[in-house]
Amino acid sequence: MSASSTEEHGHEHPKHELSHHAKRIYAIRDLLVEKGVLTEKDIQSQIDYQEARSPANGAKLVARAWVDPAFKERLIADPKAACAEMGIDAAAINEFVVLENTEKVRHMVVCTLCSCYPRPILGRPPDWYKSFNYRQRAVIDPRGIMREFGLNLSEDIEVRVHDSTADIRYLVLPLRPKGTEGQSESDLAKLITRDSMIGVMDALPAIPR
Amino acid sequence: MGRAVSEGAGRFKPGDRVTVRFEDRPGHIRTPWYIRGKTGWVERVYGRFLNPESLAFGGDGLPKKTLYLVAFNHGDVWKNCQGSKDKVLVDIYEHWLDSAA
User: Fold this and answer.
1) Per-residue pLDDT at A11 exceeds 90
2) What CATH number is given to the structural domain containing B77?
3) Which ipTM score applies to this complex?
4) How confident is the model at residue A122, as a pLDDT?
5) CB nearest B86 (choices: A78, A113, A158)
6) Which chain A residue lies closest to B75 (C-alpha atoms)?
7) Which residue ranges make up each domain of chain A?
8) A177 and A206 in contact (C-beta within 8 Å)?
9) What is the pTM of this model?
10) Is B6 domain-assigned?
11) What SS3 class is residue B67?
12) Contact flag A159-B90 (C-beta cutoff 8 Å)
């Protein structure tokens, strides 16, 4: 990729040495634009769309479910409809399933085959979620992973690891922490971390008042 | 849990014991290796979806395949973990399952 290519097609390529895969993807991008399949604007607006989605969407859903039992029922019965109700666009998900944690059951989500993840709800997956280490260990030693995230579960709690290998995307509905009675939805949302919605940890403990 | 898609759409119903086929063939297979040959039970019927093994190679994904949530005892998947009540749950298409009744 020469510097003059900037003038030719309006965007800059990274100056450092690119990996084989990066070179290939830039070449494909250039070809798609050259052949008029996509425009630079399409690509940029897709990047903006990807970046705009974040775990804040999931936290909004969970906080509402914590304060409104009827909403929680709807979120579990028909997650995509509940997202639409909250103004969250989950249309990109084929099927969306919400897994409710209880005092007796904890859920954890992995994709051992690749990195399937509820992106419209949680944004881009963290690097560790895509790592071979997590993908191998999640189905073998989920309790060990939870311990690394600070969650020590007693043996009488059942751990259910979901390997999302196909068309279903999963969101964990974490337990509402004790001592948060009467807190506002927006304060509760601060306790709901991305990792608690993947299920490797619980929601953060209540902030003492 | 989750949206009830279309119960009763396929060959198996919730509670049925099933064994995952131990097949080795190339392609965009969505059945992980570690679960092939293992026996569990149908937890949910998710309904019918376009077949990813066809979609991935430019096919039309038809006929659709019934997708199941299949549960396995952790101890049945990993032999050194007997006695735990933990479960591994995997989404598996019908053509990868045999009845284990």
Assistant:
1) no
2) 2.30.30.50
3) 0.93
4) 95
5) A158
6) A140
7) 18-52, 54-198
8) yes
9) 0.88
10) no
11) strand
12) no
